Amino acid sequence: MSFVDDIFAHHYPDRKLLAEAGFRREGDGWTLRGQVLFGHFRAVLRLAADTPPVFTLYDQEGEEYTLIYVESANGEFVRHVRDACAAWLTEVREKCFEKRLFTSPQAERLAEAMRVRHGDTQDDPWNGRYKGHVVFRKSGNRKWYALTMNIDGKHVGRPGTRCDVLVIRAGGQRLPLLLERNGFLPAYHMNRDSWVTMLLDGQVDDGEALAELEAARTLLEGGPAASASAWLVPANPKYFDLEAAFAADEAILWKQSTAIRPGDTVWLYVTAPVSAISYKCHVVETGIPYEYQDGNVRMDHVMRIRLEHRFSPAQFPLKSLAAHGIVSIRGPRRMPPALLQELEKSIGDTESHGLRNSRRRRDTK
């Protein structure tokens, strides 16, 4: 990497600020012209889509001055010129570039969510050599379970474009299910037996993507059989009457849009006007083929869940979940451990209360 690459590593131009900073449109890109060392050199910085900034320096005779890029050129004058160029470029960067690891806004959102939920970090071990290449690391052991890449679209069936992708760890049983869904493809540059590529183009919404990241993270803890997982899943009463369904049968089919596995627990949060956690369900079976689509939902496979407990709307309303970092529930997500403890304790207290009442009734007979 050159000193110019170092200056602009993880920085991307803010198109709204380029003209204000002095850039002018030229062809398909933007160009900024300036002076270095009080006019002894003329500097030109060019920006084009999907390519790193290109910096060119000319001397007073109009010849390109390339010694600044020669690592072995360590004379005092060359160092002086190089430092002056670095100062000029840094000033430009501060005016109209923003710093970010990712080239995808969706990747930024997913990374922030994993930081908030688990304290996980993301970094670029390649030091900017590959644009948009960032790994997701599990807090504690620093092992990585996903990475983003900005790649040539030809690798994902979109030649002639640049594409942002998320490559995620996935278990052998999960891979076939994912590859049947829109937005998922065989792993790019990773072992296709244990990784999968997800397109960061909106086909997979944030809730579903986060669920897959959570599942990938769990694989670092020993795989699918390590322990059962608890999930918080939204249910919209405008589209489906859960109470009527459970009244007819305690075991029902439900959309499976995450890495939920048999033996897991699903806590159903019923959206407005209820806006509260309302049901605890046990996952009996997953990966059941099921084709359905309307204006509100699309399903290609479902799971069978069995009702285990009902909550009143007053017990765990949305406003009470804010203490656990939950302000909205738009898609399936892992249950925060502290909230899970509260829910289980509530069930235990209810069962103990019911047992005491039963004993009182028996003793009075």
Q: Would you give an account of this structure?
A:
By secondary structure, this protein is α+β, with helices and mostly antiparallel strands. It contains nine helices and 18 strands. It has helices at 3-8, 15-18, 76-96, 105-118, 174-179, 206-219, 242-248, 318-321, 337-363, and strands spanning 11-13, 24-26, 29-36, 41-47, 54-58, 97-99, 121-123, 134-137, 144-152, 162-169, 184-186, 195-199, 230-235, 251-255, 265-270, 276-293, 298-310, 333-334. The relative contact order is 0.08.
Q: How much of the residues is beta strand, in percent?
A: 25-35%
Topology, number of strands = 18
Count of spatially separate domains:
3
N to C succession of SSEs: HEHEEEEHEHEEEEHEEHEHEEEEHEH
Low-pLDDT segments? 358-362
Helical run tally: 9
The CA-CA distance between the termini, in Å, is 87 Å
CATH class of the largest domain, please? Alpha Beta
Let me know the average pLDDT: 87
The CATH homologous superfamily of the largest domain is called ph1033 like domains
**CATH topology of the largest domain, what is it called?**
ph1033 like fold
Measured as a percent range, the helix fraction is 25-40%
Order of strands, widest sheet: 7-8-9-10-12-11
Identify the CATH architecture of the largest domain: Roll
| Largest sheet data | 6 strands, antiparallel
Structural class: alpha+beta
How big is the Rg? 27 Å
**3D shape:** elongated
